[in-house]
Amino acid sequence: MKIVFMGTPYFTIPVLDKISSNGHDIVAVYTQPDRTSGRGRKVTMSAVKEYAISKNLRVLQPQNFRKDLSQIHILDSFKADIAVVAAYGILLPSEILDLLPHGCINLHPSLLPKYRGASPVSTAILESEKVTGTTIMQLDSGIDSGPILAQQETPIGEEELCNELTEKLFYLGADLIVETISKLAKGIIVPRQQDHENATYTKKLVRQDGLVDWKDGADVILRKIRAHHPWPGSYTYFNGKNLKIIEARISENYNLGPGCVSVQDNAVYIGTSDDSLIVSQLQSEGAKITSATDFARGHRDFENSILG
Fold this sequence. Notes:
Layout: E1 2-7, H1 13-21, E2 25-30, E3 35-37, E4 42-44, H2 47-54, E5 59-60, H3 70-77, E6 82-86, H4 94-97, E7 104-108, E8 116-117, H5 120-126, E9 131-138, E10 148-155, H6 162-186, E11 201-202, H7 218-227, E12 235-238, E13 241-251, E14 261-264, E15 267-271, E16 276-284, E17 290-291, H8 292-298
Parallel strand pairs: 1-2, 1-6, 2-5, 6-7, 8-11
Antiparallel strand pairs: 3-4, 7-9, 9-10, 12-13, 13-16, 14-15, 15-16, 16-17
Helix pairs in contact: 1-6, 5-7
């Protein structure tokens, strides 16, 4: 098939690579516009753009399809058979959804209709799910509400971080996308309508979601640390500055008050409403990630402090 690919973050690259290596013709790659980041406001391109350029693929970066209708005509000029969308981050108007012979198919990292929306992987971890999966669906005008073309389950590891699970789901989705495209070409897929009454939704994560409440239980806090890695991160306050909790585990035999810090036998403990967390990695504001014991050595007032 002649395929338009739409994606932005690094974890969608395996999808693009799998489609290309399977012999399909990638006529264009759409990705979000370059952004400025960091203290120097350096302009950076998306991971997908970097990859596409390295493969000599044509790259387009419209700001918005709705405000610039000429972009729809440009897309139409490629005469593609189908568009594959994977974490693109820009809404597609109905004119584009209806433009291509096989429409637009989307990779969503959850078992729809569960966890529609912006943060399905984080939410699955927060909700203590044991199993999640990848769904390939036909895009419609709703929020992840289109007909399902394929699904595959995968277990969630007990210590799996959000970025690790996301990568796993998109690798899984890469194979599923290729199978789906092949079946669509042969006309042997029967789309399955979602059960909209049982749909659940997730929200876009914001910075404030990462603030640790030490009055929560240790298990809740640990799930948040996993679910919010790398964005928005899990942070607290020490001496008025942000302090990120990068890595931790639960200690059931050492109790402290919520947010209280103790250093015992080269291990850093922080209290919660029940058990304590043994914190192994921290990152103070404007600094690199360091071991919690090294941080404690460099900040003598850290021990016996109360965080938050």
